[in-house]
Design brief:
By secondary structure, the chain is an alpha+beta fold. It has helices at 2-6, 63-72, 166-174, 181-188, 194-205, 216-235, 273-321, 325-337; strands at residues 12-20, 23-29, 34-40, 47-51, 76-82, 88-96, 102-110, 117-122, 127-130, 241-244, 250-254, 266-269, 348-353, 359-364. It is elongated and about 115 Å long.
């Protein structure tokens, strides 16, 4: 991805947008072409790549967006750097300040899941601001605040495959003899995803075994696979592949052929990583939105059902209490019509029920009440 973005070196920053709180879009223009660079630091989909999408922008730009417009608009992308193979990218810009003096700014993109961030630093490596400000309450290890000196995220102690010979790397891997192949690769090498590590294990011996169980022949196969992987990275000849399940939903992506899931997933090839990531996250975002909307609908329906059930139970309770309301009304009317017959202290009264062919109806009375009550 660094090499793809580096193809835009020399382009001018024409516009800066911030569609959401942790997402930026830089419109880069050259004399003959223009492109949109998406920089995202969301916890679920941190990434940086060129995009063809056009996300809706808020009516009022966030403060960080205004800051970037102030410093970067009109600036020239002059360099793209990466911290070894870690997912930290530096976009260098040659800019001009308010009084016309030359100034250099760097947009640092840290792709680290929930710890992802976008940080603007000046030529003295002082933080100007960040999408996510990190103070002491959020992290005692590393703070990201305006005015502080920028420092790289804490090292995981992993090695870059580009900085060591394959023989040296194999020696270090075989020292982790009690680990499975994928776990050893994941713990030792920078930039290797779990998917790629599992694929290398599958290529070596068809299953993810412990390193101590590898035969000499399998160690040789492992060496050759690691060497081909290194060559692909050095010569920038890696691939852009996406895995989709039977429902055509994106599952994962890779820079190398994935064959371990041939019976489960289909492999889709793209011309470059930007096209791959653009489609992968656009489709995943669409599915997430549908899932969220379905959840919202289910929640509304569930609340309506619960509310209706409560009303129904209340009406049933009321009906149980007042089920003989009509009989009580008739009794009251007949008592009122035959009040002249009532005797004080009587416990019942026989009256003609004109609601039932004048049949005699005996109505119980409360002897403690007077007839006029």
């Amino acid at each position: 991805m660094k090499n793809e973005i580096a193809s835009a070196i020399g382009c001018r920053v024409e516009k800066v947008h911030q569609p959401s709180k942790d997402e930026l879009v830089l419109l880069l223009r050259s004399r003959s072409d223009a492109g949109k660079l998406l920089v995202c630091a969301s916890a679920n989909s941190p990434r940086v790549h060129f995009t063809n999408s056009a996300p809706e922008n808020p009516k009022t730009p966030p403060m960080f967006c205004m800051l970037l417009r102030k410093h970067l608009t009109g600036g020239i992308l002059s360099g793209v750097r990466q911290a070894d193979l870690d997912r930290v990218l530096f976009l260098d810009f040659d800019c001009t300040n308010e009084i016309g003096d030359k100034a250099k700014f760097t947009l640092c993109v840290e792709i680290m899941a929930k710890h992802s961030n976008i940080i603007l630093i000046n030529e003295e490596d002082i933080i100007v601001d960040a999408v996510k400000r990190i103070n002491f309450t959020k992290s005692e290890v590393r703070q990201v605040l305006p005015g502080m000196a920028y420092s790289l995220p804490p090292s995981q102690g992993k090695l870059s495959i580009l900085d060591y010979s394959v023989g040296t790397l194999m020696g270090k891997l075989l020292e982790l003899k009690d680990k499975r192949i994928s776990d050893a690769l994941l713990s030792l090498l920078q930039g290797f995803s779990p998917l790629v590590c599992r694929e290398m294990a599958d290529f070596v011996c068809g299953e993810d075994v412990k390193l101590k169980d590898l035969s000499n022949d399998k160690v040789e196969v492992f060496y050759e696979k690691l060497n081909s992987c290194k060559n692909a990275l050095e010569t920038n000849t890696f691939k852009a592949l996406m895995l989709k399940n039977s429902e055509e939903k994106p599952v994962d992506f890779s820079f190398m052929d994935i064959k371990q899931y041939a019976t489960v997933y289909t492999v889709h090839r793209f011309a470059n990583l930007s096209e791959l990531l653009d489609e992968f996250y656009a489709e995943r975002d669409r599915i997430d939105r549908m899932r969220q909307r379905a959840g919202d609908v289910n929640r509304v329906i569930g609340n309506a059902i619960a509310r209706t059930a409560r009303k129904l139970n209340m009406q049933r309770d009321e009906l149980a209490v007042c089920g003989d309301r009509e009989a009580l009304r008739i009794n009251a009317e007949l008592i009122n019509a035959n009040q002249y017959k009532l005797q004080k202290g009587a416990v019942f009264c026989d009256v003609e029920n004109y609601y039932d062919a004048n049949k005699i109806l005996r109505i119980p009375l409360d002897p403690s009440l007077s007839p006029s009550a």
